[in-house]
Amino acid sequence: MIRTVLKHPFFYIVVLFIIATGLSTFxxxxxxxxxxxxxxxxxxxxxxxxxGFYPSELTIxxxxxxxxxxxxxxxxxxxxxxxxxxxxxxxxxxxRSLAAEEAWTYTFNYxxxxxxxxxxxxxxxxxxxxxxxxxxVFLKSTSSKxxxxxxxxxxxxxxxxxxxxxxxxxALFQDAFVAGTLPRSCHWTAHQIGEEAYQLFKDGKEFPxxxxxxxxxxxxxxxxxxxxxRENPDIEYALSFCKEVEAQLGDMGLQNCYHGIGHGFTEDxxxxxxxxxxxxxxxxxxxxxxxxxxxxxxxxxxxxxTGVFTVPAGFSADGEFGLSINxxxxxxxxxxQPYRYHKACYGEITPxxxxxxxxxxxxxxxxxxxxxxxxTKRLVVWVLPSVMMARDILKDNHDDYIVGCRENFEGRxxxxxxxxxxxxxxxxxxxxxxxxxxxxxxxxxxFLGNERELxxxxxxxxxxxxxTLEKVINICELVPEAYKPHCxxxxxxxxxxxxxxxxx
Length: 504
Hints:
The protein is of the alpha/beta class. It contains 17 helices and 13 strands.
């Protein structure tokens, strides 16, 4: 193990391969309840102090209420996990930032273990155990084979991080994926693991960060750095952490860590004074990215900028904080940005089109008319299918992507679309085994002409990026002879990645 000395307690990083294990069994706490006339509702108080919520754990009964206040001279926002959706317990969310002198009361009408946080500082967390009025204990054991919905699965993931570590949480995810019971996307799950791992880090607990943290689009680092930088917005501190990530996981780990820096320095939620102002929301993050990488390579600047733009892009997609996406012209804001910000802005707005287009590629071409730059147009066509795959990854057949790319795009854009589809398998597939579905996809009888050639070429290029050379060589034994030359191809340039972006 390598000991990493930063401004927080010691923490350890070791590179290991993820080992799949069965789902862990522990208390499941999402039973529903209601008012009981034999119970007289009681009132409790929780106070947010500089060290967190006090008391941080509280046991009450259905029908009881908790009033939240703070002694900190700052706004606060107590809300149900998970951050930032607050969906575990609907209504446990004031839906706005509270002034320091305000109080907010919530009545708990359902039994369960309800974790919550301060939406303005996710490192502040609390836990409310709500019992049925006639019960002292309500927890029940959940079978490892029992299917689990999204809320239950998030709770299992976080509990596993706390009790067994990061690798065990990824193994739980992988097991659910293989069983076909995964209720959450790969990246979402990794983000949750990162958030919970930061809580361990903050508390000075040692835990290994292994190669597993590179799975699912490095969502781990997005969640981890968001917590880290909300708590301690120190640029040098963040860079030191990223350098250690690079030492252990190489260039891809470093790249996603830089994305995490941009994400962490962009307020979520934003100050009420900037609600409705996309430009004002990105300003602090842009300033940090320019300071760190403005004179560096465009790649590093862009990685940081993607972390910035993804935050208000998410607000816009959800219609939050005064932002929304213009359905007729979703990229209108991006056109007003400096050209070197375009790749990040367009790249982060595009994923939000999946719902708008109802996961149908046929609606994308009309949005390309207002994009005059060919590099940006190719980027948009590449991103959308890769994002849509998050919903479709468990399907047995993906021929609709092949047909969709062929019927809606011509020439190079068709190949860009197929390449984005291939990348989607790697972004959302079973960690470490993404190649299996990719190879199945490349064998589809729906391919025509040289489309199959493109599929194998791009699939193997991605494998060389994602896997060790030894692993790629072994996988190549599964590739038809006609396409094996792509296994060792070193000069293949992906059709969506124009090097001219780096010469801005």
